[in-house]
């Protein structure tokens, strides 16, 4: 792993869970990590409820755009975090892979998305503490 680990967050549509996770990783990890997100079947825009939920916690993901998952993105990452994308993610030896079982926020209201957001924040904090042991996050 390089001095600056690269984390790739992947979900099917790259419109909710992976965008929220990437937002937290960027906010909490700052310039100590490279953060990527992608989807196996990306939507054309980010879920507005996910944007609202993140804004409530002071993180702006409104300018992000869903992206297609590429083999290069996986190859270039030190940690690959999947969220329900199943077998769509290519596997490379020596990478750290985790699959986070998270409810898909698509079609849900803000009251249902807040607990998903909070779960993602906790998981990202734990991940960053493991990848960046000398620099604990907030």
Strand and helix map with partners:
Blueprint: E1 6-11, H1 17-29, E2 34-39, H2 48-56, H3 71-75, E3 79-83, E4 96-99, H4 110-131
Parallel strand pairs: 1-2, 1-3, 3-4
Helix pairs in contact: 1-4, 2-4
Question: Percentage of helical residues?
Answer: 25-40%
Number of strands: 4
Could you list the spans in which at least 5 consecutive residues all have pLDDT below 50? none
Give the spatial strand order of the biggest sheet. Answer: 2-1-3-4
Which structural class do you get from the secondary structure elements? alpha/beta
Describe this structure in words.
This protein is of the alpha/beta class and 138 residues long. It is 36% helix and 15% strand. It is built from 4 helices and 4 strands, in the order βαβααββα. Strands 2-1-3-4 form a 4-stranded parallel β-sheet, covered by helices on one side. The two termini are 23 Å apart. The model has no long low-confidence stretch (mean pLDDT 91). Pfam families: LMWPc (PF01451). Its EC number is 1.20.4.4. Keywords: Arsenical resistance, Oxidoreductase.
Outline:
This protein is α/β, with parallel strands linked by helices and 138 residues long.
Main features:
4 helices, 15% strand, four-stranded parallel β-sheet, globular, alpha/beta, 138 residues, Arsenate reductase ArsC
